[in-house]
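A protein record pairs a chain with a discrete description of its three-dimensional fold. The following entry can be read in just this way.
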Amino acid sequence: MGQHRAQHGQRLTDPEVLIVELETRAVATATGAPYQGRSVQVFRIRDGRILLLRDYWNPMGLADALRA
């Protein structure tokens, strides 16, 4: 399991929406190659429950680490 670190959190004018930018650092166990990637997650939260989670990331960095 890699490390995850929230870079930024941003609430919009809609109080139910939270946007988080994450940085992930890990090592691919299959190849031993390092992986570093960023993702953006969009949450819709109501009454303390996550109603929606969208995760946007570029899989090419992970693909490169798995091919190394």
About this structure: Residues 31 and 66 are 6 Å apart (CA to CA).
